[in-house]
Every structure is written in C-alpha cells, then in structure tokens.
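Batch job 17 of 40 flagged for manual review because the log was empty.
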Amino acid sequence: MSNTLTPFVYWAQTEKQVTLKVDLTDVKDLNVNLKETTLQVTAYGQGARGLNNYSFNLHLHSAVDPNESNYKVIDRQVDFILKKQCDAWWPRLTSQPQKPSWLKIDFDKWKSEEDMDDNEDERRDIREDYPDMYDRLYKEEFGYRKENFAKVYLVIYNLCQFVGFIYVLAVMGIRYSRDGPDSMKETYVAVGNPLKFIQLLQFLEIMHPLFGYTKSSALVSLLQVGGRAFILFLMIDAESRMQTKPIVFYLFLVWSTVEIVRYPYYITQLLNIEISFLTWLRYTIWIPLYPLGFMCEGIIILRNIPYFEETQKFTISLPNIYNFALHFPSLMRFYLLFLFLPGIYTLMSRMNQARSKKLRKSNIKRKYK
C-alpha cells in the first residue's frame, strides 16, 4: 500500500471567511472532519507525488462555524470555504506560529471584504487594507518582499522626470546667475533638447491610466501633455525667432518649478510616505504658477501668428493630391479660443477639487493622530 503523503494547501481569507485550495486532481475517497478549530482531510488523488493517498491536519488560529462551512470537489482541486465565527483578520491560519512547508499562501485570492460584493465599483485588496500584514506574509512565504512591477516602473519614471526637470532648472539658474538677463536669449539652445526629451516621455502619462497603472484621467493628461507638446514643438522648436524671446525662459521656469514638486510627491505616494509640507506644496504651488504658465503659453501663440502668416509653415494649400487645405495661423486662433481657454478651465477646476479633497483629508489625519 502506498505511503500517506501531504498535498499542497493554499489559503486566503477575508474578514468573514477562510478559503483553502487543496492541490489534488482526480480525487476519490475524500474524507473531511471539520470541527471548530481543527480540519482533517484524507483523500486519494493525483498530487505532487503522483497518484497516492494524501492527508493533512490543520489546527486553526480561531474558531470557525462547521455548519456554515462547505467544500466542493472539482477536476483540478478541492475547495474549502470556512466561515469564521467572529469577523476578523487572522494573523495566520494555524494556531502555532510555525507554518508547515506544505501550507502556502494563495495571494491571488487575498481580497478585502468589499470584493465579495459584485456591486462594488471600487476594488481593493489586502495590500491596501493591511499592507504590513501582506508584506510579512509574503516575506514568510518567499523570503523577500516582491514589489509590484507597475509600482517599480512608476517610481523609476517619476524619478527620471524629477532629475530631468532639476537639470533644466539648474542649467537655467547657473546661466542666469552668471550672465543675468542676457542668458534668456540662449535658454532654448541650452535646455531645449533635454526638455524635448522629457516632454516626449510625458506622453507615457496618457497611457498610465489606460493600463491601470494610475487612477488619473487619461483625458486630463492628454490636455496637459498635448498642450505642452503643442507649445514646445510647434510654437517654439518650429520657429527660430521665438526661441530667443525672454518669454521662453519664463515658461520653462514655470514648467520646471511645477514639476520638481509634482514628481517627488508622486514618488512619496507610491512608497507610502506622507510628507505634509510636500502634499500642501503639491496642491498649492499650482495656484500662482498655472496661471503664469498659461499666460506665457498664450503670449507665445499670439506672437507666433504673424510669423506663421509670413512663413506659411504647416499650412497646406490647394491644389494637392489629398484635396485638403489647412491654414495654420487660423488653426492657432481656433486653438486659443476653443481648446486653450477651455483646457485652462478644466485643469484649474480639477486641481481645485483635488486640492480641497486632499488637504481636507490630510487635516483629518493630523487631527486624529
């Protein structure tokens, strides 16, 4: 007769119940003995050691209700749902701190109580509800803390953007301290290329909410990133006479000042670090700087209209094989009236709502600490 072996058992929990997945297929002769604090299972099936007799005993951390608990046998496993007598998160499954080697954590099923309701719009998991518990369990299981790929990527992305804007600001500051206002004429020559590279990277911020990496609005990101790209690539880079204007210096100064606050704030949020002053600065500095930035962008567009009237750059005239005409200066006027001004209102309104919500939440946290 074959020796009795122990199957792999994967467990997870909510506040109300414990789920077990017994890794056995083609199960026969299943015998289950469930009491308030113990579970005994024996069965014949296909496990890690082939077809054999398997069994395991569990002394549970807390009491369950045997009458409300159940199990079912499916082709690939045996599933148990154990109803807890008292609603609470258990620090571990077993009564003893030593975890048997065959008992594993089913991280895919670690959901909070809200996830049991299909009508809930917001999905949450233990990593948000009980981050310390999740980290400890993961380290116990694998010996290390596994970081989420999206989180690691976002930290690296935000850090790269922060370093890029610090570089732009530092170059502009050093040049201004050395040459004074005369340095403004060469601002685009000095920092134009790195700023264009940073701006191209920012298009990833439109993709982040689409991939589920962030909870921000893809439309708002498109307005902000697309608007900056329009100014940088079509209004400044495409017209050499605009590149020497002092307004370019002021615009780059505003952009960089906003971003050297925004990106460190995002990094601290990803790392679950709360810095009250940085939060306040993130949701306050935009009040003077956004209007200044919009004013600089509007001046650049207005001053460029005569230049593009003269050069006809980006203007498409008839006849052509596509039978299509585009007068670019008219498009610039249309952008100012119907895209630029509504875009300002949308971004400012959204930032004001975010500021009210975030700073109010921060005040509540400080009050009850």
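Reviewer: the log was empty due to a logging misconfiguration, but the result itself is present. The first strand starts at residue 4 and ends at 5. Unflagging and moving on to job 18.
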